[in-house]
Design brief:
alpha/beta, Four Helix Bundle (Hemerythrin (Met), subunit A), 6-stranded antiparallel β-sheet, 5-stranded parallel β-sheet, 49% helix
């Protein structure tokens, strides 16, 4: 609805109303006047959208605290404001070009400085669209990040000189650039201050066993973050020393009892046709921790992150670890933590029971909430492709509150239709209360949970109401 409102307002305010007074001296024809005033309005609206989209993309935006919306929601709205800014910039450029061509003045205007800088701004804002595509963000995140920042700055510079060479400071159009630039700059300053307050830390990065090189563990000494998302900067890892990358806080080793655990909340579940990995899942649950697991780095004032090594910085970290025989000490700066999902505790407070559904490394976003779950009936369904991640986190699961039921699956998926049908059975009137559903995993899994919840609740109109929280880690 909010996206619809943004789009509706942008469309209506661009199209209407326009007032024509004929005859008049500035425009000889009504068509020429239409080209000019519509083009100029589109340019003004584009910059209004740019100022807001910079605010929506800021990690430290006050709107995050005022509305309690998730950062993922604001990034979605940021993209839609970007679409409208691009559309309006193109309309502005082409309608003004058509206007000057109709007056046979295009060559003269093209030679002026303001026109050249306008071309720079238009090309930069249009280039952002293909360079920000989801496929590019997923496969080449560092490339996307670098081009996005560079094109954004070039766009603001191009817009500023476009206005300055045409109007200097007579009409106030440059104020839009100052607002957008101030938001961007202030957010960066706050990030630097937050990193300075945390100070420089040492990260022990280790490769995990029995995961086929898919996962790494990052233990940062000297700081203890309780939850949320922290942006980590590894200035000595490569030439792009300024980049920060988001990681979900998994747990604090110092809060976990040392030594191997002898019991868990529940045995791992297996699918109807277990794979070899599934067959050994029960034994891995009760096995002693691996050599590089929790007990090795169990110390107070330490924060642990678990990450899947794919591309970019995680791939570089895995390469450094492999080069140094399984473990490496790397300098790290921390920006955070941020609670990008809003006040989850208050959103789940009306719920009488909570169902956590995690896929792979998505368990890291659920663990901080699971540790606090002491007064509600709760169940965790965690599916993994490999047994190594389960072995690594077995002591963490064993230390969770006793009212939590843990079910795991190795190499298979849970029957979400059956699980959700069972959990949604009953109603508030029968004393079952509201069901909270927290999901964190690959985008396809989150979409599947959302779809199944809708289908199950539609089939049974008397089912329990529910609250769905998607802890997305793919923006």
């Amino acid at each position: 609805m909010y996206i619809f409102l943004i789009s509706f307002l942008n469309l209506i305010l661009l199209l209407t109303p326009y007032v024509y007074h004929r005859p008049q001296a500035s425009f000889l024809t009504r068509g020429a006047q239409t080209l000019s005033i519509v083009g100029n309005r589109a340019g003004s609206m584009a910059m209004g959208n740019v100022a807001v989209l910079f605010l929506f993309a800021a990690r430290n935006s006050p709107l995050l605290y005022i509305t309690d919306w998730s950062y993922g929601t604001y990034l979605l709205l940021h993209r839609w404001l970007g679409y409208w800014a691009i559309i309006q910039t193109i309309i502005h450029s082409f309608m003004l070009m058509a206007y000057y061509m109709s007056k046979d003045m295009y060559k003269a205007e093209f030679a002026r400085n303001y026109w050249s800088w306008g071309i720079v701004a238009t090309v930069c804002v249009c280039a952002m669209l293909p360079f920000s595509h989801l496929w590019v963000r997923q496969k080449f995140y560092e490339f996307f990040l670098l081009t996005h920042i560079a094109l954004s700055l070039l766009f603001l510079i191009g817009y500023y000189y476009h206005i300055w060479f045409l109007y200097t400071y007579n009409w106030g159009y440059e104020i839009w650039m100052f607002i957008a630039g101030a938001i961007w700059g202030l957010d960066r300053v706050i990030r630097v201050i937050r990193m300075a307050l945390q100070g420089s830390r040492t990260a022990i990065v280790a490769a995990m066993k029995d995961v086929d090189g898919d996962y790494i563990r990052i233990d940062i000494q000297g700081t203890e973050l309780k939850g949320g998302v922290a942006y980590l900067c590894f200035p000595t890892l490569g030439w792009h020393f300024w980049e920060t990358h988001p990681f979900s806080v998994a747990f604090n080793p110092g809060s976990i009892p040392e030594g191997p655990s002898t019991e868990t909340h529940a045995p791992a579940t297996t699918s109807e046709e277990p794979t070899p990995d599934q067959e050994k899942s029960e034994s891995t649950l009760n096995a002693p921790p691996a050599a590089n697991s929790t007990s090795t780095f169990a110390s107070h004032n330490t924060t642990t992150f678990i990450a899947r090594a794919r591309t970019g910085v995680t791939k570089q970290l895995l390469a450094r670890v492999t080069k140094e025989n399984g473990s490496a000490r790397i300098r790290v700066l921390i920006d955070g933590p941020y609670h990008h999902s809003g006040q989850v505790s208050s959103q789940l407070s009306p719920c009488s029971s909570i169902l956590y559904i995690a896929g792979g490394v998505g368990i890291t976003a659920c663990l901080p909430y699971l540790k606090k779950n002491r007064d509600k009936s709760a169940k965790l369904l965690w599916s993994n492709r490999k047994s190594g991640l389960l072995t690594e986190l077995q002591p963490v699961l064993a230390a969770l509150p006793s009212n939590l039921l843990v079910e795991t699956s190795i190499g298979g998926r849970f029957d979400l239709d059956a699980v959700l049908s069972k959990e949604l059975a009953g109603s508030v009137k029968t004393g079952n209360g509201i069901l909270g559903v927290v999901v964190c995993g690959p985008p396809g899994m989150a979409d599947d949970v959302r779809r199944k919840l809708s289908q199950v609740s539609t089939r049974n109109v008397m089912s329990r109401p529910y609250v769905l929280l998607d802890e997305a880690f793919s923006w």
